[in-house]
Amino acid sequence: MNNSYYAIIPATVRYDQDLPFGAKLLYGEITALTNQRGYCFAQNAYFAKLYGVTSSTVSRWISLMVKKAYLRLEIKYIEGTKAVDERRLFITDTPHSTDAHTPTQKCTEGIRKNEDSPIRKNAQDNNTRINTTLNKREKGRSFVKPTVEEIKDYCRERGNNIDPQRFYDFYESKGWMVGKTKMKDWKASIRTWENRQKAENPTAQGAIRQREYSKQDFDSVLDDLPFDER
Questions:
Q1: N or C: the chain end with fewer CB closer than 10 Å?
Q2: pLDDT at residue 44 in the model
Q3: Residues β-bridged to residue 89
Q4: Residues whose CB falls within 8 Å of the CB of residue 88, separated by 6 or more in sequence, listed in order
């Protein structure tokens, strides 16, 4: 029963979630066969062979589409008997289903229903979740102790007189703790050492040192002066 007619599957059928995928294809096949006589007269065995399913499966699909008013069923009996002569399947003029909606309808209805609070709430929840994650990352960053070479380079950059090895050994012996708190910034600790060094030994940082002259130095200076300036 080959045919070259186009199959038509309306949106109400395509997006009906109650219909199995095979039933939707079957509906399209029935529309194509309907073009020959105005109705489809093919039997379940034909469709079963066409789609590789059982006749009972085809029967179930057809019954479901008839129930949903996508198809209209007529049975022709042999005159004077109850024996079936022909089954006729008609495509309804306006296929409909109270449960079927197109994706556009569902999308529009969903947005209208949820366009206010849920979307805003989801955005706020996402922002809160992101900020919380970032804060945890910041707090979770562990201190990495410097090498002696890194300390030496920073002290050279600062132009201080701090002994890099002494600085390293001091905090290494304390487990890199500042008091009872874990060190967070070793460069800040170096700057603290600088300030303490300046307070304890001002001359070490370029302060003017007053020279003490001996009597011999004083006599030597006098010898160099002109006689009239003594």
A1: C
A2: 93
A3: 40, 73
A4: 39, 40, 41, 73, 74, 75, 76
CA distance 147 to 42: 86
**CB neighbourhood size of 94 (10 A):** 7
Say how many residues make up the chain.
230
Non-local CB neighbours of 129 within 8 Å, separated by 6+ positions: none
The residues of the chain scoring below 50 in pLDDT are 97-102, 104-109, 111-117, 119, 205-210, 221, 230
What 8-state DSSP symbol labels residue 40? B
Burial class (CB within 10 angstroms; exposed 0-12, middle 13-18, buried 19+) of 224 = exposed
Quick one: pLDDT at residue 124?
Answer: 57
Distance CA 32, CA 27 (A): 9
What is the structure's pLDDT at 107? Answer: 46
Angle at 22 between CA 20 and CA 26, to 5 degrees: 120
Give the β-pairing of 177-178 and 84-91: unpaired
Strand partners, 91: 71
Structure tokens at 23: 């039933």
Looking at residue 198, its pLDDT comes to 84
CA-CA-CA-CA torsion for 101, 106, 112, 113, nearest 10 degrees? 90
How far apart CA 89 and CA 39 sit, in angstroms, is 6
* 8 Å CB contact between 92 and 51: no
